[in-house]
Amino acid sequence: MSKKYDKLGNDVFNKVEKINSELFTLTYGALVTQLIKDYEDIEQVNIKLEQMGYNIGIRLIEEFLAKSGIGRCSDFIETAEVIAKVGFKMFLGVNAHVGDWDANRKEFHLTIEDNPLIDFVELPDQYKHKLYYSNILCGVMRGALEMVQMKVKCTFVKCTLSDDSTSEIKVVLEEVLSDMIPVGYD
Amino acid sequence: MSDPLSNPTINTTNVGGQTTTQNTIGGVGGGKSNSVGTPYTTPLQTSAYTTANSLSATNSPIPNHHMINSNSSNNLSGMVTPGGAGLQQQQSSITSSTNNLGLLGQQQPQQQQQQTLLQPFTTQSRLISASCFEFFYIEMIDCIMKSSSDKQQAHKKLDKLGFKVGHRLVERLSLDTALFPELLDAVKFICKVFWTTVFKKTIDGLKTNHKGGVFVLTDSKFQWLQHLSFDSSASNKDCSEYVQFTAGLIKGAMSNFGFKCIVTFDIQQVSTCVFTIKIES
Description:
The complex is a heterodimer.
Chain A lengths: L1 H14 L2 E3 H18 L3 H27 L7 H17 L3 E4 L7 E6 L8 E2 L12 H13 L2 E9 L8 E10 L10
Antiparallel strand pairs in A: 2-3, 3-6, 5-6
Helix pairs in contact in A: 1-4, 3-5
Chain B lengths: L1 H15 L5 E2 L3 H6 L5 H10 L24 H9 L3 H21 L4 H10 L8 E3 H18 L3 H23 L9 H17 L5 E4 L5 E6 L21 H16 L4 E9 L2 E8 L2
Antiparallel strand pairs in B: 3-4, 4-6, 5-6
């Protein structure tokens, strides 16, 4: 399954329109700097980044499904592989890996090797382990998965900006949402 | 003439990088990056710490550089007419790509070739999906509009953000370029290399008055307005906030070249944007 999605990820990334990643990195950096100035509390910055990511994710999933041609995933394990091999590859051009499943198969860790958001970035010591610089990625994943009826919770457990060796996001499946009959049709 | 203006800018960048969270161009930052291209990128990053004179082609650390005796006029000429200089530059780019291929493995050659073709005159760099950036851009504009007390303050913020990004981005893009002897060369760089990097096309029209202090740049299909739809019932029909950031980009880029300027813009019809650059002096 992993190889199949690896190939699909590469194919889709080669097809999509691409742009210089430095523009993205620098723009994101300028925005984070602005948010830190606007909000006194670093925790508020994290929340704001996650909220922005959520709003991006609910739109991004449409693009993802249209371009990748992926249908419904059979289970959460397949969903995780699709996110790592196709989703991250398609949009960011990076490889991500899935690991550390729990016994119930409802929790996994996503390792991002080469996060383009943190090129050129240094964190001063007072922000390490407090500011989750790439927290927008957690919001994107939550928003996107909610649009395909999976309610998840994403948090950064490791970040290379805080002197860890890799960036890791913990993803916990909280519930599978059921369809609601539209108002007036029941 | 431009040297005294350029040096303080570079020093400011270095100092700023040590006091707050922001993007820092330099060897230290590169050391933290997990980029696969680090062995290739690091020497270029290091050169950013040197004085403006050292940023010329003669001192470039790229061993296969073919521009040792070129000046910016030849460089720009090579862009307009793909002659020998342009071809040589492409050769250099392809050679650089080849150096990277060993690190990236077999799956990447096609991608690298695309990268070379997309940006034949700029430093090799990573690519991401354009839609990814556009989703982010829309959300960023929305966030800043909501968090500001009024529209004017929002536009000031966007202009300031754009200035920061433009200032740094153009530093990356002009690593391989000799210093511009004239103002017109700097504006041409914005119209060609900078615009291609950000919008994947060159500016459609460039006009100037005879004194040379005012430039009018016309983009007939502005990329960041392409996907906006028109809602006739909306109270706010003004989409200038989506363009204000770009005005800041231009101002920041020109500032890094040593020219302080005022950039205004006008949205003329669907997707046509006109940017006016007025040099302060």
